[in-house]
Each structure stands twice: as C-alpha cells, then as structure tokens.
Write a structure and sequence with these properties.
Blueprint (H helix, E strand, L loop, with lengths): L21 H25 L9 H6 L6 H22 L11 H11 L2 H13 L5 E8 L4 E8 L10 E7 L6 H4 L3 H8 L5 H11 L1
Antiparallel strand pairs: 1-2, 1-3
The structure holds manganese (II) ion (MN).
C-alpha cells in the first residue's frame, strides 16, 4: 500500500519571514502536517490500504470508493496531507508579484484584473467561519477557474475541482504572529505566493 511521508519544504523555516514566522512554519510542518501524514497512513491501514492504491487526490475525488467506516477520516487526514503539501509548494521567498502567461489571462477573464481577484480571494478567506481554506481552483466541468472556500481539511478534490492555490486559515497557520488578526495574515501572504508554480500547475491542465 502507499505510505505517505512528510514532504520536504522547498525553503527553510525562516525564509518566509517576516510574512510567516519561523516558529509557525516549523510547528505547522513538523507537528501539524506530520499528524495528517500519520493519520492518513493509519486510516489507510485500518481500511485495507491495498484496496486503495491510487494517490490520495484520486481517492478524495471518489470518496464513495472508501468504506463508510473510514470515509470521514480519509477526508480529514487525506485532505490535510494534500492541502498542506500544496500550501508549501505554492509559497516562496522569491515572490515575483504577479501571475503570468495563461493564468494571468484567465484571471483577467473571470475576475477582470489581478487586483480584483486578490480582493475577492482575500474577502472570502477572511470571512471563513472557524477553520478552513480558501482556494483558487480549476473547475473541469465548466473549464474555468473559480475561488472557493472549504471547511476544516476538506479538499477541492472532493468537489472534483483541481486546486491551484490554497490559503490555510486555520489559527495554527498564523496565531503565533498574528493572533486574531487574520486579515493582516492574508494581506501579508500575498507577498510569498509562488506564481511561477501556480501558473505551471494551470498550464499543465490546459
Ligand atoms: Mn494547517
């Protein structure tokens, strides 16, 4: 069966300073993300992981294939594993400011312009009640990009949507530095989005 491992970060814990502090990054990665990895492996074992050989995003896209006894746990831990993996990959200390290429064009089509897209995304992220994520996704049914939110560790894959960019707004992602000031965290996070990576993800879908 597939055994999942904590992915390495593409940068050091302190490299996203001052926007995300080193201690938050370390705890978030080593403790929180590790707990999703462990929970996912344990749940897969308990439901007979050999019967579910596909990668977790494919399992999440078809949760009905998972025995009901393990479905909620796969949703939570599998979502937590995959959401965080993408979260790390879509951040960088070398932010280049804006998306380019095809993604820039799509953002202009569906959100008028980049500033308006950022405004919409930030508003949605800030108003999530409790723990969750804000996403830029590709919706293959309508062949378009969208902003969606999800609660807890729900992944866009469970809605058959492909995540391109995700922002973690669980308090564990920002509380040490920002306490209750989620809007400030969201505003600062834009400084570390890896648009090259997000743009490449989008290109691969087209
Ligand atoms: Mn998190």
């Amino acid at each position: 069966m597939v055994r999942y491992e904590l992915p390495r970060l593409p940068y050091d814990y302190n490299e996203l300073e001052p926007f995300i502090d080193s201690m938050t990054m370390e705890i978030h990665h080593k403790k929180h993300h590790q707990s999703y990895v462990d929970g996912l492996n344990k749940t897969l074992e308990s439901i007979g992981g050999a019967a579910h050989p596909k990668y977790i995003s494919a399992i999440l896209s078809d949760l009905s294939s998972v025995p009901e006894s393990g479905r909620n746990l796969i949703n939570f831990f599998g979502g937590g594993f995959e959401n965080h993996k993408l979260f790390w990959e879509t951040m960088t200390p070398k932010n280049d400011g804006v998306p380019g290429g095809k993604l820039e064009d799509a953002i202009d089509v569906y959100f008028n312009n980049f500033d308006n897209f950022k405004k919409n995304f930030s508003e949605k992220a800030i108003t999530i009640q409790g723990s969750g994520w804000c996403w830029l996704v590709f919706n293959p049914t309508y062949n378009k990009i969208e902003i969606i939110t999800s609660i807890n560790q729900d992944s866009p894959w469970i809605f058959q949507k492909t995540p391109l960019l995700g922002l973690d707004v669980w308090e564990h992602a920002y509380y040490l530095k920002y306490q209750n000031r989620r809007p400030e965290y969201v505003e600062n996070w834009w400084n570390i989005v890896n648009w090259d990576y997000v743009g490449n993800r989008f290109d691969e879908l087209a």
